Amino acid sequence: MIHSKISHSMGALLSLLLLCSCKEPVDDAITKPPTPPVVAAPANWAARADSAQAALRQGFFTASQYYSKNNAGDNSFNYWWQAHGLDVLLDGYKRTNHADYLQQANQLQVGAKAQNGNTYLNEYYDDMEWQALACLRAFELTRDPAYKATATLLWTDIKTGWNEQQGGGIAWKKTQRDYKNTPANAPAAILAARLYLLDRNPDDLLWAEKIYRWQKATLVDPNTGLVWDGINRTGDGQVDRNWRFTYCQGVYIGAGLALYQATNRQEYLTDATRTANFVLGDADMAPGGILKNENAGDGGLFKGILVRYLGLLAVEPNVSATNRTSYINFLKFNGEAAWKRGARRPPGLFNTNWTSLPQGPVESSTQMSGVMLLEVLASLQVRNLL
After folding, report:
1. Starting from the edge strand earliest in sequence, which strands make up the sheet with 171-173, in order?
2. How many other C-beta atoms lie within 10 A of the C-beta of residue 330?
3. Quick one: how far is CA 238 from the chain centroid?
4. The CA-based dihedral angle spanning residues 198, 201, 202, 203, taken in that order and rounded to the nearest 10 degrees
5. Short-list 190, 64, 174, CA closest to 182
6. What is the rounded distance in angstroms from the CA atom of residue 25 to the CA atom of residue 169?
7. How many Å apart are CA 271 and CA 143, to the nearest integer?
8. In 3D, which of 281, 276, 265, 169 has the Cα closest to residue 227?
9. Quick one: DSSP state of residue 24?
């Protein structure tokens, strides 16, 4: 009787287990937990900038204390490249606070002056403007009065380039005073506006606005914001509308931004963002979203100049969130492309084309553009904007 009850109970229990197993399958096999997805570590833009800075120093800085033309033994001197060399050293110093950047900056100033005939004055107004901008920035970072003295010396000479041919504007060079272009005028407007922000001299602001008005009226497409290169280059009074350089867009963005910061007038910021948005959407300026190849020589610096001023625009507090996001994403996309295609022996060398590896010697102008790009991205990363 007891056996019968136990059998009956066991049968019921077995039926219950079978019923449960139909509703909820049980897998008694031992299985490994699912493999978590691989999450790529965020890019360390500061480390990448360090590599590019080291490549610039090791491959291009000569015993005579200036940047050579290339890393294959051509030690030709180009004055305005040295100004951008100073600027990238200041980028490195601002990011790291390492004194060796300032030491090399001081060496560069000595070497560049010696190679330029023992003077900072030059035939080309745009070249002097770049030197003045870099020196003014060096003064703001170090408070070394020698840098401010150089910037002031150059600004005094730069103003002599203004004349009324072509309706105004600063000439490209002293022996061709009837040719006016963006490279000689937009950086001058940036310089004047920054001097005003530093010293609050009303005359500097008057100069900045006068130069900017001429630039906008003469060399900017009112329909698109595209910035043309120059007027009367060949003596025919014509504008070079087919000369479409990233350089020109960059310095006009910088001029609008500097004047906005000096005056708080919205029109200047509107101009800057309009031109920036044009660049991002133009298939010639940025095919496939990557800034175009403008070859070696002076053109090697063009993209870096645009990147520098687009980066400054991206962190202007009063730029819209939509525009800020667009600018930062664009810069990051370019940075990833350029870095992934940079040579690895040594690391951090760049090509004129940011979508391919360097082939043969690299010029210092090209390398400086790459350094500027990585330094801008390192700065954005510190701000938690990447």
Report:
1. 171-173, 176-181, 230-231
2. 20
3. 30
4. -110
5. 190
6. 83
7. 32
8. 276
9. S
Tokens 């996001």, residue located: 325
CA 60 to chain centre: 20
The number of beta carbons lying within 10 Å of the beta carbon of residue 32 is 5
d(C-alpha 105, C-alpha 117), whole Å: 19
Give the C-alpha separation, 288 to 33, whole Å: 41
Cα 175 to Cα 58, 161, 180, 187, 222, distances in angstroms: 37, 10, 12, 20, 31
Classify residue 231 by its DSSP letter.
E
Tokens of 226: 């595209």
Cβ contact 228:248 at 8 Å: yes
Q: CA 112 → CA 64, 76, 82, distances in Å?
A: 9, 12, 7
Higher pLDDT, 30 or 269: 269
Under a CB-based contact definition with an 8 Å cutoff, are residues 225 and 274 in contact? yes
CB 187 within 8 A of CB 194: no
Structure confidence at residue 341 (pLDDT): 85
Cβ neighbours around 278 below 10 Å, total = 18
Q: Pairing between strand 230-231 and 343-344?
A: unpaired
Report d(CA 386, CA 340) in Å as an integer. Answer: 17
The whole-chain average pLDDT of the chain stands at: 92
Measured CA to CA, the distance from residue 335 to residue 370 in angstroms comes to 8
Count the Cβ atoms, other than its own, within 10 Å of residue 271: 23
> Model-level pTM?
0.89
Q: Write out pLDDT tens, residues 15-54.
A: 433 334 444 444 444 455 566 565 667 899 999 999 999 9
Secondary structure of residue 182 in the 3-state scheme:
helix
How many angstroms separate the Cα of 80 from the Cα of each of 113, 258, 269? 11, 21, 28
Q: What CA–CA distance (Å, rounded) separates 323 from 219? A: 24
Over residues 317-337, the pLDDT tens digits come to 999 999 999 999 999 999 999
Q: Does 346 sit behind a cis peptide bond, omega within 30 degrees of 0 on the bond before it?
A: yes
